[in-house]
Amino acid sequence: MPGNSFGRIFRITTFGESHGTGIGVVIDGVPPGVALSAADIQQELDRRRPGQSTITTERNERDRVEILSGIIDGKTTGAPVALYIKNENMRTDDYEALKELYRPGHADYTYDMKYGIRDWRGGGRASGRETAARVAGGAVAKKLLRESGIEVIGYTLEIGGVRAERIKYDEIERNPVRSPDPGKVNEMVKRIKEVKAGGDSIGGIVEVVVTGVPPGLGEPVFDKLDALLAHAIMSVGAVKGVEIGRGFQSANMKGSEFNDQFEIRDGRIRTRTNNAGGILGGISTGEDIVLRAAIRPPASISIRQKTVDRKGEERDIEVYGRHDPCIVPRAVPVIEAMVSIVIIDCLLLQSAYQNWVKNRRSPL
Amino acid sequence: MPGNSFGRIFRITTFGESHGTGIGVVIDGVPPGVALSAADIQQELDRRRPGQSTITTERNERDRVEILSGIIDGKTTGAPVALYIKNENMRTDDYEALKELYRPGHADYTYDMKYGIRDWRGGGRASGRETAARVAGGAVAKKLLRESGIEVIGYTLEIGGVRAERIKYDEIERNPVRSPDPGKVNEMVKRIKEVKAGGDSIGGIVEVVVTGVPPGLGEPVFDKLDALLAHAIMSVGAVKGVEIGRGFQSANMKGSEFNDQFEIRDGRIRTRTNNAGGILGGISTGEDIVLRAAIRPPASISIRQKTVDRKGEERDIEVYGRHDPCIVPRAVPVIEAMVSIVIIDCLLLQSAYQNWVKNRRSPL
Amino acid sequence: MPGNSFGRIFRITTFGESHGTGIGVVIDGVPPGVALSAADIQQELDRRRPGQSTITTERNERDRVEILSGIIDGKTTGAPVALYIKNENMRTDDYEALKELYRPGHADYTYDMKYGIRDWRGGGRASGRETAARVAGGAVAKKLLRESGIEVIGYTLEIGGVRAERIKYDEIERNPVRSPDPGKVNEMVKRIKEVKAGGDSIGGIVEVVVTGVPPGLGEPVFDKLDALLAHAIMSVGAVKGVEIGRGFQSANMKGSEFNDQFEIRDGRIRTRTNNAGGILGGISTGEDIVLRAAIRPPASISIRQKTVDRKGEERDIEVYGRHDPCIVPRAVPVIEAMVSIVIIDCLLLQSAYQNWVKNRRSPL
Amino acid sequence: MPGNSFGRIFRITTFGESHGTGIGVVIDGVPPGVALSAADIQQELDRRRPGQSTITTERNERDRVEILSGIIDGKTTGAPVALYIKNENMRTDDYEALKELYRPGHADYTYDMKYGIRDWRGGGRASGRETAARVAGGAVAKKLLRESGIEVIGYTLEIGGVRAERIKYDEIERNPVRSPDPGKVNEMVKRIKEVKAGGDSIGGIVEVVVTGVPPGLGEPVFDKLDALLAHAIMSVGAVKGVEIGRGFQSANMKGSEFNDQFEIRDGRIRTRTNNAGGILGGISTGEDIVLRAAIRPPASISIRQKTVDRKGEERDIEVYGRHDPCIVPRAVPVIEAMVSIVIIDCLLLQSAYQNWVKNRRSPL
What is the pLDDT of residue D29? Predict the structure, then answer.
């Protein structure tokens, strides 16, 4: 309840700070008998880790994951799977000078107000480094989803106004910005380099598509599938907005345009369009789930800003160090991880009732 | 866990269907000794109820609330407060003809897939009527917040592309569309009447501002204040997007534009701008909390649409009955209610630690 | 979280006070498509209601249950089932005189310390009347268990030192003390009448046996099946002790006596004895679950006692009114209800993983 | 929800197996600014660790705790505190021979039924070693309680029928059986040595007293303080019964004997006796909380027993290895830990409402 856990049946609990000994996650509710290796998790961590390319931070953390529990003979046992990533390549000195200052756009001030004490070393718990534990947990979720025929695919839809126009899943991992549109890669990279040159940073939009989701996931009323997804995604530090299907566009649509009409296609009930983004009344329709997250520009910029220190004195600040000018490409696996955790959690919960449901379900 | 409860310390559980005997809410965690009357709740329900004006549905439900428990001598006792609203003015016959059809844009199909059985009378649990229980619960939250100096103010920012330009709180309740800009009322009303005349419906945007929130609310990582708000708001059936502060706009902003710089103002630490919408690192800053919800057009339209029936046959459908052409004005108190519940819940949770925090906090 | 809900997937939330308008329960997580009528619930409530016989309180409450939601055409829909029981036959005047006094053995003092305000009318929320909502919720759990071949059988093992020696399930409901041993009925009744004549009260022991539980229910570590049962049963006001299988006796047993050895019997793996009470490592073995609850004597006695009033003055008190001299027979359906809720909750949770488990399970 | 977490506001999540890399606990909800060192935790772990004396197992695990997160400059930050204990001195070979056998009294069979797979190395997650993580978490709870003037004192009340008659707190840690009665130490030790000589094991009773608890802790109805304590304690593997105050004795008491009458003493409201064990209506009275746990004899005995193997064949089994003949003395810190976690959790939750309560409370 104090906020470091997420999920109901499939539930992750994370710990660790940016400049402490390491970052970890305990995953409770992992079904038994599933083949799981460090490599399954490492592969996702490598997509998030810093130092991947010239457009990300130069910090070079290997982020090697270690499995601490929950596995025997390469398979899950039903016991909690604990994963741990040691911190490396820290430069705590970078933060000494900022110890007494509230960095604009960061959580320094709010943590101090909340707790009266603050881990100033790289933002401590408020650091983006915390998301490594999410990605580790999400990798396990992804593995389970794949066993169930469900894929979670994320990509950079937009960086600083440059928007992908074609969505080609195969292209995503082939370019440093994770653009699904190969024709926009250069423009996106250029945009990032521009702001970086000016000591500044830039935002963007991540889009995620989930394929293979069966109808029936999500709970009505407060735990609607879209509500859980919104919670999961908005809990990622850099996210300032979440939308499902047509999202904010739907505010200026008519019902006759927005409603997805039903038809029989491929031998089953389908909708002709997917404006709803695969969710009706909070429950999956069986169409692709489609959502977007607005990512704000990183707060750490080397341009001089006004701020206040812990004593309440007004001060100037310049935040040097090794920071990402644009976090969007590295946010893609983080958002995917959160989406994966929500979907497997809903799938397990729905399974709980399946004995009672299965004989009554489905017209086709 | 099956989705009909929301909140942690201040927790609501709702029940009831559109065309059953009534709708109710049990509120657990209401602090003791607070003056609370049916009138406090009725006042909010009246803002949500149908039949308020010519631009809402003609259904005329009085929605009289009854307090079933938790009060003695006009004050809360710490026991759960149960509220109940009997259903009236139902026309179940309107739905008989649709019993076997999956209405496009509604949850008919997904409920059938989830449960294998469905309360077809007016949408049952998936009806917008369910939000009356949220408003009743939110009214109690609002009362508690007011005792703590916190106000939650919602209004219609946009209907079908017509956007309020000036925000005057006093105007909101003086016009049928809950526009804070008196100069846009006629245009908004006209837009609604147009789509209604065509048997169609239209969407819009609700904005909410919360004033008086102390710094320190919200939990880091998964239960960030914005994550809880996104969950709460996205759980309202008609919402397709949620954004905080500059939201999706921030995707095309630079860090130097987006970061809210700190200063001393009014004798305390303030930010010069409020692009973050009053939340940093998931924790309230003490600035106004500002958020927006995208409301899709109502699904019930009287234009002919394609659909499928429960036997899997393709069919045509026209949904007659008494429906709102635009739900935005009535959604305002619903979104306010959900925001209020999140804020009081966070406030109570933060209080749990205050003995340990208070002597260490705040530079000023 | 503030304590008026219990269960995880099958979850009840109760409300209402002894002398308010009524008592209710919202049951979330009821599987869909299950036939359920008011009669199913009434039958259990009738076993708990006051005025059943000469040895219980003379208060004559009919406790008629009303189903407020969650049912269509006699079947559950997956939506929350809300049940409501109006209060009748209240004599609030009986309590006026005690308004300022802390009754020994009651929660008057502790509620005042906790909340600073108290519903003095018949104990308010702390009244045994609260258990009617548990029995109503438990009746739904029982119905579901029966569909799964599981029976929950409770009886009076002991009253004031008089202990049943033979356990004949058929006899339980045939006598007013719910003794499974017809040879002990008269002696138990006599014991109750004796203490009643003296204005006093007496305690006893309830035993519950659950048959038909499949192996595998309960979660390791903190949510062991026995831990959940202990929580559920100890939450009943009058219970001061809970034991599983040989319970406190096991403190003076050797491992060679206590261990239940395995064998093949009836074509499956069984234990030769059942000292563990059907639970090993917190997980059901498939043997009968056997547990006992110690029930203290009712606190309301008409013998003069020393106490203190709300102003902190020492006073004498005599509690007149219509009270049970022994609550044990009426506690039987309450304990059964709590056990039923735990078992169905564990069964549903275990079902969540069954797709992953079923192909790997069981040697026979 | 899958059972490896406990607590609400102060919440522990444990992981790790007997013969895996280690055992850990993540503690969420630790208040900020509290001095906390590895020594604080080590001290409690040393009370639980094997190899303390001749009457415990000869396994010699040092159980060195490492703090992985949540601390800066020796103080808690409000972030989760993760603690880790590497496994040492394992002899996995001891278990190879038992890999296919279901050990009587152990969870081998039930884990296999639940998960279809089992970590056979020393019982895996079902091993008593899991309790090291509880003790580590409990040590943090104890530290917080001590800051609030609350002490949790556990001791061996009984071993194999030998019962302490005098309770002298100072004596507890001075003898290997943790007897509070120095006159019974030799007899208890003798009883253990006898059963050990026969390759057998023996049970006993742990009693815990909590002093300094303010009135008002615990939530009415389902989360009564005694219900939470029963849950916590019964979740310890070896516990088969829990009682509060007079417990099972109260079943044969009259109301006039059992009721604790109120008086003014030491300038505040007190009870003359404490048969209720410090809890009325599920809420603390301010008197000492007193409870007992029945500990069954350890399941691992070297006497030949009948069992069944994973193929469903009947077999004989003798469990050699390094096992405790009596777990009671080592169970004392485990039970204390669980009690401490419940009390701090209730204390924090009650604090959440204190702004609303404090001005209305208490006659004196």
Answer: 97
